[in-house]
Amino acid sequence: MHTKITKLLGIEYPIVQGAMAWVAEHHLAGAVSAAGGLGIIAGGAAPADVIRDEIRKARAITDKPLGLNIMLLSPNADDLAQLAIDEKIEVLTTGAGNPGKYMESWKNAGIKVMPVVASVALAKRMERAGADAVIAEGMEGGGHIGELTTMPLVPQVVDAVDIPVIAAGGIADGRGMAAALLLGAEGVQCGTVFLASNECFISDKYKELVLGASDISTVVTGRPSGHPVRALKTPLARKCLKLEKTPTDQSLEELEAATAGALRKAVQDGNYEEGTFMAGQIAGMLTALRPCADIIKGMAGEAEALLKNAYQRFQ
Ligand code: TUI
């Protein structure tokens, strides 16, 4: 399957694995890249030494291109910006902010840069700053999100920039992928679907909750703090929603204390009561664990068949 993104990144399928803090480590990223997609190590809030080790372990799994994600809200961003150059990472994605100040050094190092954007304005700014592509992420996705959904965001970004656009948020199968390509995207980024993969090393509880989710199992919390996050409706998410209804200094403080470290509690400890189980709205579509290679090849094959037969379907 050839698109501007497969050519730009030197990969087989235009499917990028979304970076998920605490989740996307070498097993997952290595498996996705080995299968012909683009695997991405999530920098999250981890120290550079830990991420260097993850990159090297992923390199031991595959010699195909590998990505690193830098979460720009995190204090490790400066260190990871340099680490990417030192470790000769092929592709960088960024999230939750504007990576403008790093762009020149990354471009000089020959790294392909694909910032995640949630608006047309940032997409245009990133193109001017030298981005090779942008990832337009709708708020159907899990984790930290913007305001727009994928369906209106992607075509507006496609119209606004000349660089390739990758669609993200709410895509988990060939139907979603075909739709994204018809909106003008040159590839897709998927996160939640890889939570339900064999190579994803998260707590059993996290997997159980994802596989048991329905279409209405996720909620968005954190709006009053300016950092909205989509996650499964668990006890902590319900508590956040309740506290957010009457935002006082005290309730916001209580919220901050309750959510600090809560993603790690979900991923590593499987702590149902105190964890934040980030997931996108497509969690309801996931019913079984599959190897990453099956997810990627299945999605691309289904999209290709749908696009090929689309005209005939409506005759
Ligand atoms: O970054 C993400 N998703 C994430 S990061 C994350 S880690 C976290 N942990 C606890 C609390 C909060 C986060 C979990 N999920 N996706 C990429 C993304 N970026 N989505 C939206 C944006 C975005 C939003 C606003 C990018 C830029 C932006 O504005 C930047 C500007 O300066 O205009």
Q: What's the quick description here?
A:
The chain is α/β, with parallel strands linked by helices and 315 residues long.
Task: Please describe what this structure looks like.
This protein is α/β, with parallel strands linked by helices. It has 2 domains: 9-201, Alpha-Beta Barrel (TIM Barrel), CATH 3.20.20.70; 214-282, no CATH class. It has helices spanning 4-9, 26-34, 48-61, 77-86, 103-108, 120-128, 150-160, 174-182, 192-195, 204-212, 235-245, 249-259, 262-269, 292-313; strands spanning 15-17, 39-42, 66-71, 91-95, 112-117, 134-137, 143-144, 165-168, 187-190, 218-221, 229-232. The strands form 2 sheets. An 8-stranded parallel sheet has the order 1-9-8-6-5-4-3-2. Strands 7-11-10 form a 3-stranded antiparallel sheet, covered by helices on one side. Helix 8 packs across helix 14 and helix 11 runs antiparallel to helix 12. The longest helix has 22 residues, at 292-313. It is globular, with a radius of gyration of 18 Å. Ligand TUI binds next to strand 5 and strand 7.
